[in-house]
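Supplementary Text 2. Reproducibility record for the structural model of the 91-residue chain.

All settings were left at their defaults, and a single model was retained for analysis rather than an ensemble. We include the record here because the model underlies the residue-level annotations in Supplementary Table 4.
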Amino acid sequence: MTTKTVNNKMRELEQLEQEKKELESRIAKIKEQVQGEFGDSEILETSQYIIRWTLYTSNKFDAKEFKADHGKMFQKYLTETEGRRFSYAAR
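Retained model, structure tokens:
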């Protein structure tokens, strides 16, 4: 790819990232509006949709706390991985 082509692709990427943020914001707002209609219910039915907003419980491992309490054991089970991060900034 030429430098000009890469610059064009990056401008396109920036535009798409902005559109994505705007869409995510709109989606979140619509979800909040619909969730406001639930009251104490977990199910909302319309002529076209059955919408659920259910409570759930999950258990998560607190790695920070475990490391503080069991530092040596924590280190024993760490595995190192490599990857590449894509990032950019306009000049």
